[in-house]
Design brief:
Elements lengths: L1 H28 L3 H27 L2 H31 L21
């Protein structure tokens, strides 16, 4: 049973590393700020969660798993909020390319304040 958990842990670690690498490459390759912001949050958080699951499966101690769980909770709580605030600030500063937006929910929102 221990060997199976180690293989699953290794697979989670490799997949998490690949997702984090793809997020880093996307930060360089994507054309605009909103696309880069998406690449910095979605695959990066999923990659971190997979890496944390792999570490938890490998360590198998209550203290370690609790610490990894806290890291996961704080990451899930802060990354989406930070991305939302960065995206909203970029939109208000005129850094978002309007030709790439499919739906513009914030159009005219500044007038309602």
């Amino acid at each position: 049973m221990s060997g199976v958990l180690d293989v699953i842990a290794g697979a989670c670690l490799v997949l998490g590393a690949l997702l984090s690498l793809s997020a880093g490459v996307a930060l360089i390759r994507f054309p605009d700020l909103l696309s880069r912001m998406h690449a910095a949050t979605k695959p990066q958080v999923l990659g971190l969660l997979l890496a944390l699951i792999g570490c938890a499966l490998r360590l198998r101690e209550a203290v370690s798993i609790t610490t990894l769980l806290l890291v996961a909770v704080f990451s899930m709580a802060t990354a989406p909020v930070a991305a939302h605030m960065i995206g909203r600030a970029a939109y208000r500063a005129g850094q978002a390319r309007a030709d790439l937006l499919v739906v513009d929910d914030l159009a005219g929102a500044d007038d309602k304040r």
